[in-house]
Specification:
This protein has 5 domains: about 280 residues, Sandwich (Immunoglobulin-like); about 250 residues, Neutral Protease, domain 2; about 100 residues, Immunoglobulin-like; about 70 residues, no CATH class; about 120 residues, Zincin-like fold (Alpha Horseshoe). It has 31 helices and 30 strands. A 7-stranded mixed β-sheet has the order 5-8-3-2-11-14-13.
């Protein structure tokens, strides 16, 4: 097969089939016939081998068809792109190329195992890429050239008996139109064989180096690929724009992490294959902005193109991984630009929301100097662009020098009518700080392979809290850390099917699955634990050394362990008989986490460790950890240094002597820095609940969370968490404890919402919440700070959720008042989510239609998310079904980035859970096709749809769903299905063992406290 320019290439052509004659021929000629047949087969085999493994000889540039305008060979082999530029196509010719591409795909191998197997060839290493790429947005096509300088990997050496390994490039739906290989030393073209690998997911080149020393090579490729519609790779999207034809302004943007650079151009798409990049983007001249990782250094018109086309050239990047390469061409506008600040910080948005980027611009210019000082190293690029992409799969992506965000993760309305809630502002700040931390942890130093993803995500998460805690001191960010990161990690890490933080990653599905709370939240939690037991000085010095040694390179967790061990021993904070690797591998190489149980006998403590598992403890699980224990007594000074008691990995039980009076309380895991739960004997629990208000904030949060989860796992009975409900709700202003309580009630709500005992739960919660709601209410009576606003939101949310009449009536009244004049929304920003949801739940069709119209009209991304959440709160089944079907309708106005949010709103509604699961069952194939597998959309929907399933018939329904998924062949969701099955079984177990116990304690509490049942 040939491309348009006459160059040969292969696309896994199928072997021709021979025709066979009947064996009824005359016996005399039988032997002659067989011999003739064998000769024919041999000849056919030779022909097939020549077709499927073409030997291309590109001896000089004259082998290219002289009439082909696609590539200017002088520029193709120019020294640097800023000096010699290859011309791009002067005619499109896209239709013919597109047809060729489709024909080339016809013979693709569909074997799923091979399709998902990653290329990890280690024979050659990239040095430098010269990439010229042109997206045709209208036709969803990409045309480009890439020249890659490569060198032999030092791990192999050419010997007489050793075959030179092929050059293996990663590709995904990319058609190679031409290929050339040159020796850097001689400048001559080389003969080579080239062919596609299994399922066309790699392109292999075997250079003929006979008679020549193995040295650096340059590989030049002309290619064509597709602009994606699934927010992966190089993809296209649009946003409303009345000034554009059709009311839409189209853009093309990238999302290459984790393994989607190969969708845009042929490359060594692995984090340890770092190289420098010189990037050029060719586009129509009517695009207002074109950006890449580095600053623009050239801008010129492409001769002979109509309408006018330009090429933007960008400076060469530092040495970096392919997943960090980024570019975007669009009509977004420059909203903010830093003057006199280095690096230059720019914020890009849609024109009508330019003013919503101010908060992030100010925050970034505060955080960058802080992070430079914290890491002991400057930011390495001359500029930093922050771009609000109108349709974006992740919350954000840390591309070096060009950070891309979902609009709601970057924009913060600050005007009076649309100001953001405290929760939204904190969420935006957290995302921005996380991505800025990545510019060092992840970009400058990158994990060697995806099994150590946590090494960048865990660190970036933890350090984002440090940065915000220093820059927004009144936010108390480590209370947020405990509530959001630690509790999230605990929840996901309690399953028997949980995975270690670091585990073998071998397939594309493995890579996509590892982007989960274990890598992010658990990773952050164990980093915080290290910081605590090593001490801030040793920890920070270790980070400085690590970044200095491995900058512009890759590292693995063992590299970090060695450095931190040296610093811990030097500071005297790490015992000399322990090293960090020895300790931390018990946390990174095995799943789960321990629960530590304390039994007091005078001054002697018997302490045991056991893996915490749901739905119940498992005495046969012998997982053990090295655990840094901290123990605080009632009489101990708050300023007294804490002693770290090391719980050895080898032991299940230890004894300690503690100086404590018999009537004093004690607690463990000060400030909840350790990644473990704590259980006490009953007398100790009673002492702690009786002295609850004397405990530090993070310890109060820990007690509430641990009590509910320990009761769920049958370590304690539900009388202890119910007592804590009474204690916490009497303390109207105990912000940390209320935060923990709000989250702890979620599981009980999911399990009880459709059970008879829910009436008793409602009675208890209404009775205990009413006084706090009356004291706090809807209205701010003074100057509230950030924490006060978050607290008001939690209290009002619980009051309206549990149906306190005063709350639901007032919420609905405020919403109806807004309906009378949609331009005058007087609902407090912090309470919008609660009021919208409550009003749609107690209201009817007019409220839902009004909310959806506001969703369509608003230009605020955060407002859109609030309304998307609220639309799923209705209890009208047909409206919920309608809403779900809109998530797979491209004309509905619900972007692909928001599909999971809309589904979650319905699935977590007790009136909508069955509807959501039925939708998932009936539309699994359509959902998978619509969203693709890049952002685990289907996996997230499976998890959400099964949260409330707790009966045997739910298991049967899910088994049918799992069978259907298997028949469809969807390997990317296999792990999600296993986890969902475990979740359902855990729920069934809880319902059979704990439901009646909780019901008993609720009824008893109602009697003892004289609560009103109605």
């Amino acid at each position: 097969m040939k491309s348009k320019n006459g160059q040969k290439y292969t696309v896994n052509q199928k072997q021709p089939r021979g025709r066979y004659c009947s064996n009824t021929a005359i016996a005399v000629f039988g032997i002659l016939f067989v011999l003739l047949l064998l000769a024919t087969v041999a000849l056919l085999l030779v022909m097939v081998l020549r077709l499927t493994s073409q030997e291309c000889s590109l001896l000089d540039t004259t082998t290219r068809a002289p009439s082909d305008p696609r590539l200017n060979t002088n520029g193709y082999w120019g020294r640097e792109q800023e000096k010699s530029h290859p011309a791009m196509p002067v005619d499109d010719g896209y239709s013919e190329l597109s047809d060729t591409w489709n024909n080339g795909l016809a013979g693709m191998d569909d074997d799923e195992t091979e399709r998902n197997r990653l290329s990890q060839s280690s024979g050659w290493l990239p040095i430098h890429y010269r990439l010229i790429i042109e997206p045709n947005i209208e036709r969803s096509l990409i045309n480009g050239t890439v020249t890659i300088d490569i060198k032999p990997n030092p791990t192999w050496a050419q010997t007489q008996d050793q075959k030179i390994p092929p050059i293996v490039l990663d590709v995904n739906e990319i058609q190679i139109l031409s290929c050339e290989v040159r020796s850097v030393a001689s400048g001559k073209s080389l003969k080579f064989k080239s062919y596609y690998g299994a399922s066309n997911l790699s392109y292999l080149i075997e250079p003929d180096l006979s008679g020549a020393a193995v040295g650096n090579l340059t590989v030049a490729l002309e290619f064509e690929s597709r602009l994606s519609d699934t927010l992966q790779g190089f993809y296209r999207g649009y946003f409303p724009d009345n000034e554009e034809s059709g009311g839409r302004s189209w853009f093309a943007s990238t999302q290459f992490s984790p393994i989607d650079a190969r969708r845009a151009f042929p490359c060594f798409d692995s984090p340890d294959r770092k190289a420098t990049f010189a990037i050029s983007i060719v586009h129509p001249n009517d695009r207002a902005m074109t950006l890449s990782n580095m600053e623009q250094i050239g801008h010129e018109y492409v001769v002979g193109r109509a309408p006018d086309y330009v090429r933007e050239d960008f400076a060469i990047t530092p040495r970096m991984s392919t997943y960090l390469v980024a570019f975007i061409t669009s009509n977004l506008q420059l909203a903010l630009h830093s003057e006199g600040f280095r690096p230059v910080v720019n914020v890009w948005t849609r024109g009508e929301v330019r003013h919503q980027g101010s908060y992030v611009h100010r925050l970034t210019m505060r955080l960058l100097p802080f992070l430079e000082k914290y890491f002991g190293m400057p930011y390495n690029l001359p500029k930093l662009d922050l771009v609000a992409v109108p349709d974006f799969g992740f919350r954000a992506m840390e591309n070096w020098g060009l950070i891309t965000f979902r609009e709601s993760a970057l924009l913060v309305p600050e005007d009076d009518n649309r100001s953001s809630s405290a929760k939204h502002k904190e969420a935006v700040a957290s995302v921005v700080a996380h991505e800025l931390a990545h510019q060092w942890f992840g970009n400058l130093v990158t994990p060697r392979w995806w099994n150590d993803l946590w090494l960048k995500e865990g660190f970036a998460t933890y350090i984002s809290y440090i940065a915000l805690n220093a820059n927004e001191k009144r936010w108390h960010m480590f209370e947020s850390f405990v509530q959001k990161e630690l509790q999230e990690a605990f929840e996901k890490d309690s399953d028997r099917n949980s995975h270690p933080i670091s585990f073998p990653v071998e397939t594309a599905s493995d890579i996509r699955r590892i982007f989960d709370p274990i890598s992010y939240s658990k990773g952050a939690a164990i980093v915080r634990m290290m910081d605590s037991f090593l001490g801030e000085v040793a920890f920070k010095q270790g980070i400085h050394t690590y970044l200095q040694i491995y900058k512009f390179d890759n590292a693995a967790q063992d590299d970090l362990w060695d450095i931190l061990t040296v610093e811990g021993h030097r500071a005297g904070t790490l015992p000399t008989d322990l090293d960090v690797k020895q300790i931390m591998e018990t946390w990174t190489l095995q799943p789960g986490y321990p629960v530590i149980t304390f039994e007091r006998n005078g001054t002697e403590l018997t302490i045991s460790q056991q893996r915490f598992l749901l739905p119940s403890r498992n005495s046969s699980d012998n997982t053990r950890w090295y655990i840094p224990l901290t123990i605080v007594t009632e009489s101990q000074s708050a300023h007294e240094p804490l002693t770290v008691h090391w719980f050895p990995y080898e032991n299940a039980t230890i004894q300690l002597q503690i100086e404590v009076e018999s009537d004093e309380y004690l607690y463990a895991n000060a400030d909840r820095t350790g990644y473990y739960r704590v259980n006490y004997d009953y007398a100790s629990w009673k002492k702690l609940t009786n002295n609850f208000d004397k405990l530090p904030p993070l310890t109060r949060m820990q007690l509430v969370d641990d009590a509910f989860q320990l009761a769920r796992a049958e370590y304690i009975q539900y009388d202890i968490p119910l007592t804590l409900i009474l204690v916490v709700t009497q303390q109207y202003r105990d912000i940390p404890a209320w935060a923990a309580l709000s989250r702890s009630l979620v599981y009980i709500n999911n399990m009880m919402a459709r059970e008879p005992a829910y009436e008793a739960l409602l009675a208890v919660m209404r009775s205990t919440l009413r006084a706090a709601f009356d004291a706090i209410g809807f209205v701010d009576h003074g100057e509230e700070n950030h924490q006060d606003m978050l607290h008001r939101e939690r209290v009002v949310n619980l009051a309206c959720y549990y149906g306190i009449d005063k709350c639901t009536v007032e919420a609905h009244s405020l919403f109806r008042r807004w309906m009378t004049d949609f331009r005058d929304n007087r609902i407090p920003p912090t309470l919008k989510e609660i009021i919208y949801c409550t009003s749609l739940r107690v209201g009817s069709i007019p409220e839902w239609n009004f909310a959806f119209q506001r969703f369509q009209d608003t230009d605020s991304a955060s407002e859109k998310e609030i309304i998307l959440n609220a639309l799923g709160c209705t209890e009208k089944p047909w409206l919920l079904s309608k809403y779900l079907n809109m998530t797979i309708d491209p004309a509905s106005g619900i972007l692909k980035q928001d599909g999971v949010r809309a589904f979650q709103a319905v699935a977590t509604n007790s009136a909508g859970n069955d509807i959501a699961f039925n939708f998932l069952y009936e539309n699994i194939a359509a959902i998978n096709a619509y969203y693709g597998d890049g952002f685990s959309t289907l996996s997230k929907m499976i998890d959400l749809a099964t949260l409330q399933m707790n009966k045997p018939h739910h298991k049967e329904r899910f088994d049918r769903f799992a069978y259907k998924a298997k028949q469809l062949g969807l390997p990317a969701i296999e792990k999600s299905i296993r986890l969902a099955k475990e979740q359902i079984l855990n729920n069934i177990y809880w319902r059979s063992r704990s439901y009646h116990q909780l019901q008993h304690f609720l009824v008893q509490l109602i009697k003892d406290m004289h609560f009103n049942m109605y």
